[in-house]
Amino acid sequence: MKVKLTKATPEDLPFLEHIENTCFPDFQRSSRRILRMAFNSPIQEVLLSRIKTGNNWKQAGSLIIYKYKHVIRIYSIAVLPEFRGQQVGAAMVHRCVERAREGGFHKISLEAWAEDKKLISWYESFGFTQSAQLPDYYAPGKDAVKMEFQLVNKKIKRPRENLIVVDHKKSFTCDIENVKVITARQYITDIKYQELKNARVFNLCNSYRYQSLGYYVSLLASARDHRVIPSVATIGDYRNISIVKSLSTEMDDLLQKSLNGLPEPKFEITIYFGQCLDDKYKALASRLYKLFETPALKISFTHSDKWYIQKVVPLGIDKISEGETEILKTMMEDYFSRKRFAIPRLKNYKYDLAILINPNDTNPPSNQRALDKFKAAADRQGFYVELINKDDLNRLSEFDALLIRETTNVNNYTYSFSRMAYSEGLVVIDEPWSILRCSNKIYLYERMALNRIKMPASTVISRESVRQMKTENLQFPLILKAPDGSFSTGVKKVNNRDELLQQLKILFKSSDLIIAQSFIPTDFDWRIGILNNEPLFACKYFMARGHWQIYNWEGSKEDREGTFEVVPVPEVPEKVIKTALKAAALIGDGLYGVDLKEVNGEVYLIEVNDNPNIDAGVEDKLLGNELYNRIIRVLYDRIETSRNASKFVAADPV
């Protein structure tokens, strides 16, 4: 049979939907929206295979691939049942191999359902090998196998040595291949461990208090470039219940679902190397381990209106009973026996940079051309770059730096990425404290007002204060702001008392506090980009046509966004620059976009944004590639600086 592969077009979408529904179980199917987006993705290709029957060509299968810098990933490959056994699938695999060789790619990767042994064997017949097990990859209980086809021989790396560190060697022994038990004093004082390269350290000392032996094991492991759990940052997190609650926010749905229906208002779970005894809490234990990465720990929960984490307690060997020690050893054996996959650092690249993006974000902080420019700047600086997404949280330890280029919020996974990256010793933009501080406009108002930075007259309104509020003293129009709104969303203009009460009713559905500010009409807002406490760029963002905001979400597509003007920093009024620098310094030393209004010689701060827009053709209008070079250079310089100081690095998977 003759098979031909051609590039698919949006008109082929009905066929792609048909083949998805015919060839894949529901947990593997791609939605119509995902399929449609593949046509516009700069890193995806969609191909159709046609088979010749008589004088006609019939659509028989489809192939969707991702093209990364050094890897082609087969996202989807499918053949309709009536055309199987006629080499249609083989033709698509061969096309992938040809495409990879022609493009200089290093390997081809894919994921296959672990239970589909026939499919796995089929891929193995082409030279693919299994490289990792991926539990719950498609859905709970639906595991996957990661497979690879190598086109470039990788340098054989010396396996990492796994060190279990305890206070007294007699208190714990194990017989696991490539795992060695040593004492804290041995690790701290023996020169061979000081000079040891490529080691993982699992700290099971009985105390992690400040300046104890257990504390110094984690601290010195960081200084020696050993991967260590727990890290010093994680040790600090145990003691701060605010951080514990903040870190656990992102997994609140799983927490409530896992503990729902328990008869008592208190519950404890013991986790050894990411596992617990009761399979009912397997997913919960795995997620908690990723948040508080520690060999052994006990977590207490309490219930009031819902379940909360009450306390996180690390367990040293002496705090584990004899019976539990055997369970610990069993779970350790399972942990160390698993095949784990880590992307090797490629030759000629000094550091690895992850850029977190969301391909589905309708208003990303950087457009595709800007992402390409970030990647090119990083490549010039000596970074190997990968674009990662929300599913790559457990891969952070493979990188040296994280650049977040998607809309951040303290209540979603972007904060979890930032917090975990920071705790593992990565250089991060945006840092977790910047996200925390910038995400809430009420915090910003309090912080700036305390430091005498001029803002529009503002007041904080609570549910309780509405009834007693004397609206006759208010100067309309007013601007109402939800604390965590972004891109001009969650911001409403009200012109009278009735509109005020109506909008407050809506906004109070998502927040107990709302900030109200006097309306200062201007033709444009200043946006001053700040990095490392220095001005990076300056823009005038003009209001959308006939609207009071830069974005008019209710307007037509043509009038939705105002125009802009990029201004050389030396030409910006001095008072604007000084106010922007002072406001940004009150947040941190990261990358910020400071919004200000200038009226009659007075400058008013509107807000400080983490994760500011960096779009090709807008913010880079004057600096061009140098804008991206400066941001990447800061990441590089911070890594270099950190290499000469103690780093807070958590262990990556074995």
What would the keywords be for this entry?
single chain; about 650 residues; alpha/beta; Aminopeptidase; Rossmann fold; 5 domains; 20 helices; about 30% helix; about 30% strand; globular; disordered C terminus
Question: What report would you give on this structure?
Answer:
The protein folds into five domains: 148 residues, Gcn5-related N-acetyltransferase (GNAT) (Aminopeptidase); 174 residues, no CATH class; 109 residues, Response regulator (Rossmann fold); 62 residues, Dna Ligase, domain 1 (2-Layer Sandwich), CATH 3.30.1490.20; 89 residues, D-amino Acid Aminotransferase, Chain A, domain 1. The longest helix has 18 residues. It has a seven-stranded mixed sheet with strand order 1-2-3-4-5-7-6, with helices on both faces. Strands 25-24-23-26-27 form a five-stranded antiparallel sheet. Strands 9-8-10-11 form a four-stranded parallel sheet. The chain is 31% helix and 28% strand. The chain is built from 20 helices and 27 strands. The protein is α/β, with parallel strands linked by helices and 654 residues long. Helix 13 crosses helix 20.
Quick summary of this structure?
With 654 residues, the chain is an alpha/beta fold. Helix content is 31%, strand content 28%. The strands form six sheets. The chain has a seven-stranded mixed beta sheet, with helices on both faces. Strands 25-24-23-26-27 form a five-stranded antiparallel beta sheet.
